[in-house]
What we know:
This protein is α+β, with helices and mostly antiparallel strands and 547 residues long.
Amino acid sequence: MNKSSHSERDNRRWLVVALPVIVLLLLIGWRLKLKAGDAAQQAEMMALRRSMAPLVTVAPVRVKDVVQTFEGVGNVESKLNVKIASKVSGRLDYLQVREGDRVKAGQVLARIDPTEIEAMLRQKMAALAEAQSRLAQAKINQNPTNTGVTTNIRQQAAALNSAQADYNQASKNLSSQIAAATAAVTEAEGKVSAAQAAIASADAVVNSAKANLANATSRLTRITDLYKQGFVAAQDVDDAKTTLSVQQGAVDVAAEQRKAAVAQRDAAQAQQRATEKQLQITRTKAQADVEAAKAKVSQAEAALDYAKANAAQTPAYAQNIAALQAAVAAAQADVAAARAQRADTILKSPLDGYVTGRYMDPGAMATPAQPILSVQSVNTLWVSVPVSEEASRSVYPGVPAQVSLDALPGRDFPGKVVQFNPSADPMSRQFTARVAIENPGNLIKPGMFARVTMTAQRIPKAIVVPREAIQKTKTGSLVMVVDAEDTAHGQTVSLGASDAADVAITNGLEPGQRVIVLSAQPVKDGQKVRTGNQRPTGKSSQEGASR
Length: 547
């Protein structure tokens, strides 16, 4: 009984062990069978694919205009940018406009103090009246007696004496005025030197104060250490801190004194420059006055000699009248010149536009050729664009363009090339084209960043294919043409111009043929293909040809 029970127990144990093994072997066999079936199915599918014609996308050969465009970037510039300066020297009395103000042509923008010029004008008018008086007197006495001639001589002598007196006075004024202006320059130079010395002294005071501050800092550190060790009293620490604060204040005071000395030096230098400029103006004006007085002396001497030489000759009166008429004409010209100078004291805007620069304020001294204001016209603007050597052959005045600006997104402004510089920049090897655009509503401002698109070349009625259809080979360019039986044939072509989407074919294709633009696998010459959806081509060939 024991043996049989042990035997049954062993059989059950082996059955428990063998059953999972058997199940595992059955599962492995089933999995291997499934794998073999999948491999056979994949092999069958691969063979089917190899025997099947490849699926391709085709596009028709079309006729359209190939338009090549040139794109460039540049800055917006004003067509007219005028620097307004005075023709005369003087103090600026009136200047109300500022940057951004709109001005009209003929609007008064600034005025120069006309006091000196008006005084000169009155002097010229007095001289004119005197010349006219002498001319009138000569005409009244055209048939005088010898007494009249003698009177004329005396008048000319008096005029000569007056001219000589004016010349002497002008010579004395020249020396005194130059001496006074030179003394002012010397005084200003002394002030500058004194200010420089004050700065040096202030630097020394600052350095001394900083040294005392450093010494007070070190002393505070030492006393603090001694206080921590119990060698000194707390009062000593407080005294050292007070000394440190005093020295810090001394450093700040010395620094402020140095700033004041620097400001005084700058003011003295400005005064020196002003006195030097005034010396130059004084010397020029005084020398001009001397030369004018000298010229009047020469003129009076000539008139006196003329009167003496012709005292006994009756025809001399006619010549004397002519000379006096010339003197009147010269005086009238002087008056006209003085009036023109007075008119030059009023500065007007030469154009409609905006003020873009203001370089002076009322009270400043204006001198010729020194800008006071800058006025720019914004009705018509320019965009200067660099053009490469390749595109320069197709860019010339009159070429249409489209301008877009980052500051005004979504808007294009039509324009055209108005200037083209035929000389390239030697560094960048690029030419410069200027595109003119209108500025409706004054939205565009000079200095904005602009993008310009110009039509560089247009080839009408070109035979084109999509860029994807072109294959590059060792022997040239190739396209795969699909015939009516869906058989692919390799065709060598000659390429022409191109645009963003298409390439012109100059030889090798005819309109209406189909070319492969996309294929899931390489297509060989003579191979059957399956055409999928034809690629959209946009406009028809007639529409492309008629554009």
